[in-house]
Design goal:
This protein is α+β, with helices and mostly antiparallel strands. The protein is 38% helix and 33% strand. The chain folds into three domains: 88 residues, Beta Barrel (Elongation Factor Tu (Ef-tu), domain 3), CATH 2.40.30; 63 residues, OB fold (Dihydrolipoamide Acetyltransferase, E2P); 74 residues, Orthogonal Bundle (Helix Hairpins), CATH 1.10.287. The chain is built from five helices and 14 strands. The strands form three sheets. A six-stranded antiparallel beta barrel has the order 1-10-13-12-11-14. Strands 2-9-7-4 form a four-stranded antiparallel β-sheet, with no helix packed on it. It has a four-stranded antiparallel β-sheet with strand order 6-5-3-8, with no helix packed on it. Helix 3 packs antiparallel against helix 4. The longest helix is centred in the middle third of the chain and has 35 residues. About 8% of the residues have low confidence.
Length: 269
């Protein structure tokens, strides 16, 4: 049956071996935990673009909802185009008249120039018609510019996303009257993300701008990525320092607003 003491020693050795194998994968994590302090952070867009109304009018429709991902030039909302559509038609009518006046003046000048060859018209009349032609050309150019401006204003009744991103804010309600320059929406770009947190004086001395640092992002499968400190700023009055870490390769699906942790070294490198 064997020596009971030997069986006990073998069992104990086997148990210690199994425990060592189970603990081995945790050693790097424990080492990292011991070497860093995890500071609560928030993922933010490096750029936040505020979209404003480029024409005045009444909001007639929302085309997207708040917290929607959009592509560049996606329609955010519509402003009533009625006034601007009428203005465009009036501008087109004035442009057509200016073009007609220019054509008639040009034809009259050509006719007088032909008559001059037979000495049937005066030099003064030719000069008058040339001046009239220049004036008609200027009037035509002004009228065409008015058409272009009216068309541009009509196009601006459709408010579009300036960049691809997340529409985090959508302020006006349908039926609300907007003035020129009124805030419409805020778009957070998704191509360039940062992790933002606030450090104590004891923590801020252990990092520096440009330093590579680890950021743990709260995903269904917790993920740690490498970033680089883009900004360190603070005020001596409140003893709080803001840190912004640019994420070089954010995992797919990460958006502004996600929770994260910046891993601050426990000692300065």
């Amino acid at each position: 049956m064997g020596d009971p003491r030997r069986r006990s020693q073998v069992t104990r050795a086997t148990t210690l071996t199994v425990l060592a194998l189970l603990a081995a994968p945790l050693e790097p994590l424990l080492a990292q935990e011991n070497e860093t302090t995890a500071v609560e952070a928030r993922i933010r867009a490096a750029r936040e673009i505020d979209v404003s109304a480029q024409v005045a009018g009444v909001v007639v429709a929302h085309r997207i909802e708040r917290n929607t991902l959009v592509e560049k030039n996606a329609v955010i909302l519509e402003i009533d185009p009625t006034f601007h559509r009428i203005a465009l038609e009036n501008a087109k009518a004035r442009s057509r008249k200016a073009e007609s006046d220019l054509k008639l003046t040009s034809q009259e000048l050509d006719r007088e120039m032909n008559l001059k060859r037979g000495d049937s018209t005066s030099a003064a009349e030719i000069d008058r018609l040339r001046a009239a032609l220049a004036s008609a050309q200027a009037a035509r150019d002004v009228a065409q510019a008015a058409v272009d401006d009216s068309r541009h204003r009509l196009d601006r009744c459709t408010v579009r996303a300036p960049e691809s991103g997340l529409v985090s804010e959508l302020w006006p309600e349908v039926g609300e009257t907007l003035g020129l320059g009124a805030p419409v929406a805020r778009v957070l770009t998704v191509q360039d993300l940062i992790a933002e947190a606030f450090l104590s004086p004891e923590e801020v001395v252990r990092v520096e701008r440009g330093q590579e640092i680890q950021v743990a992002i709260a995903l269904p499968t917790p993920t740690t990525v490498t970033g680089r400190i883009r900004e360190l700023a603070g005020a001596a009055t409140n003893r709080i320092f803001r840190i912004r870490v640019a994420l070089s390769e954010p995992p797919a699906g990460v958006l502004a607003g996600f929770s994260a942790r910046i891993l601050i070294p426990r000692r300065k490198r």
